[in-house]
Predict the 3D structure of the following.
Amino acid sequence: MPPTFALPHRGWLFDLDGTVYRGQSLVPGADAAIAALRAAGRRVAFLSNKPIQTRDEYARKLTRLGIPTPVDDVINSSLVLARHLARLDRGAPVFVIGEPPLIGELRDHGFEVRTDHRVRWVVIAFDRTFDYAKLNTALQAVRQGARLIATNPDRTCPTESGEIPDCAGMTAAVEAVTGHTVEVVVGKPSPIILEVALAHLGMTASQCAIVGDRLETDIVMGKRLGLATVLVLTGITPAGDPRIAEIAPDLILSSLRDLVR
Amino acid sequence: MPPTFALPHRGWLFDLDGTVYRGQSLVPGADAAIAALRAAGRRVAFLSNKPIQTRDEYARKLTRLGIPTPVDDVINSSLVLARHLARLDRGAPVFVIGEPPLIGELRDHGFEVRTDHRVRWVVIAFDRTFDYAKLNTALQAVRQGARLIATNPDRTCPTESGEIPDCAGMTAAVEAVTGHTVEVVVGKPSPIILEVALAHLGMTASQCAIVGDRLETDIVMGKRLGLATVLVLTGITPAGDPRIAEIAPDLILSSLRDLVR
């Protein structure tokens, strides 16, 4: 008997940590569920807000965990920022508060990545090498007219050893000293990352479902753009969260495994 | 003929940069005005929001510029923070986002300055050595219950070569990643720095005048506590600033020189 799926959609977008895996461990059955979707001709892509790893690292991790994935099917906030900024100001000189994977993505998209303040954009990201000198360069750049764009709005990032500061820390510091607000944040829950993902799948929003563990990013964003939304309870949102009724995902699953019957 | 003064007050509090000097240059006549006040038996002290220099460095700078000043007559945000925190939680373990002058002041006041997150307070200041590791230590400390206190609210600090990021950048980063708001900011326009200064002079607010170049700190704070307020136009506030009429300092002088007639 062929498998049946909880929803009929042709395109499937998956959040990663808390949805497909937790840290270094696959969510049990996630591999079989995704394999069944693919075998039935559905298209699958993976979304991440984290700009501190390359898309290739995500593809290799998924493959190692039993979900063979080409790099093109991984869409993270670094890629989305580079693509979005290429539409706004192709090839512009940029100063980056960010790590090498983001800098590499920007260079690959033709941007001139500079280490001084003579730039048209300051790109702000989750940056474990953030320091006062970068904050000062951002200030000087903005005082000369540079604009602000950021990868993701997350306050902290969960790791095996606890939460660590994420992009919101760098963004707040730059906004506070410059007195300017970041114009665009491309990562979840921005529609920009979803638009890039839909374009990658070549589908419209109504043809797609998004699966994630965070109500305020994955589910809110999906509903806003008209995708079907699937909340899984393997991540940050507990079953008893009162916001579930309020935000009302189309489907609630205890695990990705239950996508396939 | 003995000099006459623009106001009869016995205690005089002076802002420094923009009021007494600009960068490395004395405001012409500031030395004579302060000498005349002292000669007439008035008491004088100097206030600074900057925690990155020691009080001794300020005293020596004033002395070098022709205003002989003992270290006790300099009241900066590092001293005020240490005194205020000593009232709240004497000898507590603290983690400091700040530079050696602040750390020295805290040690002198009996605090246990630690480099890990096992503390009761995170002290946030203007810190040119701020980095991601400090931001992370602050986050871990707050997650374990530490409270937040800051030296000064300034967005940027003017230098000879332009404005550089000040304490607001560090504060905003910590607030953004922790989700907690700083409980106390002791520097101008907080009443705390004025209370420390009045206690140092041994006078009440109505016996004192405050002289400064910033409406939103020196003047607003002085009016709020009932000191006479004197705006000088040698610093950041231009003569035509529409807020002058609104905030209404008791006296407006083109320069400190005009305090004495």
Remarks:
- The interface with chain B takes residues 127-132, 135-136, 139-140, 143, 155-156, 162-166, 168-177, 179 of chain A (CB under 8 Å).
- Chain A has two domains: 11-49+188-259, 83-185.
- The domain at 11-49+188-259 of chain A is CATH 3.40.50.1000 (Rossmann fold).
- The mean pLDDT of chain A is 96.
